[in-house]
Amino acid sequence: MKKIQLLFSPLLILFLFWGCSDNGTNNNHQPENQPPEITIETPSEGDTLINFPILISISASDPDTDDIVVMIYADGEILATLDSEPYSTSWIGTMESGEKIIKACVSDDSLITCDSIKVYVPEREGDFSLRLDANSSKAVFIVWDKLSSADVYRYIVFMNEGTDVDTTNTKIDSLLGVNDTAIFVSSLNPLTTYSFLVISLPYVGKKPLSNVLTVTTEEVASTHDDHAELIRIPIGSFDRGDTWGEGGAEEYPIMEIFLSEYYIYKYEVTCAQYKEFMDASGYNDPEWWDEEGWTWKYEYNITQPKKWNNPDYNLGDAFPDYPVHGVSWHEASAYARFVGRKLPTEAQWECAARGVVGLDRNTDGVPDGYKFPWDDDFYMNDTVHCNYRSKNDGGTDDYNDGFAFSAPVGSFPSGESPWGLMDMCGNVSEWCNDWFSMGYYNEPGTPINNPQGPDTGNDKCFRGGSYIYSSSIALPGYNLRTCKRFSANPETQRLDLGFRLVVD
After folding, report:
1. What would be the CATH architecture of the domain defined by 130-216?
2. Taking the chain (504 residues) in consecutive chunks of 10 residues, what is each chunk's mean pLDDT?
3. Which homologous superfamily is 231-503 in?
4. Closest by CA position to 401, among listed 434, 427, 437, 363
5. Which superfamily does 4-121 belong to?
6. pTM of the model
7. DSSP β-bridge partners for residue 237
């Protein structure tokens, strides 16, 4: 197909666009072939357009050829050039009210035919519209349509408590980029009225303003009881790190850590428990999310764990007693807020897994705990004690754990930790609350009392190994040791990664 610009000079196209007649005839010359035909189907002549964006639909044909090009214009601006059906495009709208012209032209190799209609855009409050997408006691999520009539490079958001707001009030954000058309505003007070205004900054021309959006936050939501069985970990010290001399640098130094009393889930959070969060519209309620998690969820349209209700992964409604997995750190944290609990710190998790039992190899007066939750011997009593990648599902040892993927929680009672927790290694790995740092415990000033991990980072910690990790005679259960550290981006939805929670 030849392009339009090869058939017509720019000056002629401009003349044809603004001056062609609807029947496509030429008074000086009658072409031998028939002119193409075109009709604007929607919107209709005289329509008042309020709710943008709108769909402009065209019917076009040529009795002599299928080789045609359709051009669609609105308010003097070209919206689309189409060479195949459907001949339609979206018009995001205009910030200026009044009568507007929508025009469509169809061309073949020699002729052009146009159709046009007049529509009316009424005056609106503000040049573009803010909308409340979600509300809670402490956060609101506000969205607006991307502007097209101005070359906008930044949006500035203002907020004020009460029903009035202008550009002299608190500037809460400056969003660089025309595609940033949403904002999550947190740290609000419950049952309080706030007003919001957005101003856009174009490269040239006036600064379009939004309407003023007034929102009253909701009352504080009640947390949910997921009826999880809790295990008490008493106040005291334990040794963290690789006291067996097998691990990587991230597992050192060996250090005595003091922890206050806490309670931890005996089992990993199950699909049945997590489904209660989903059924309570947990993915749509900002009450349970922080800004980073909500923004990630909104951007990627996350509405459930990865592969939810996929039987190939033992995940979903049909697997109530299996651990939930395929959840990001953000999702795990949202669930924790939903039930009024927390993800464990790395230190809390490790203490609960290894205990304060066994030998004292470094003679610091604190027993080392176990390399694996049940003992220092992965194959103790020539028995399988956890769900891992054994011989039956492609592993390199001679044992069979009975499961190709995840298993119902508590399926390996001989693998319980000294405190009585189940599945602290194998089955699914478990998110911790901490940011990951290779040398956190080597850094000057790292607290030995209730350490919380670094203040910032790129990855979050997770622990415990999972069903994807194999064992060998040379290094039995290496990735399933209680001191083994892992990390992943908090947005990661690994299909072997779940969580359990703590109560301080």
Report:
1. Sandwich (2.60)
2. 35 40 46 84 87 84 89 91 90 75 91 93 75 96 78 87 87 78 95 94 78 95 98 97 94 96 98 98 97 95 96 96 98 98 98 97 95 97 96 89 96 98 98 96 91 97 96 90 98 98 96
3. paralog of FGE (formylglycine-generating enzyme) (3.90.1580.10)
4. 427
5. Immunoglobulins (2.60.40.10)
6. 0.75
7. 258
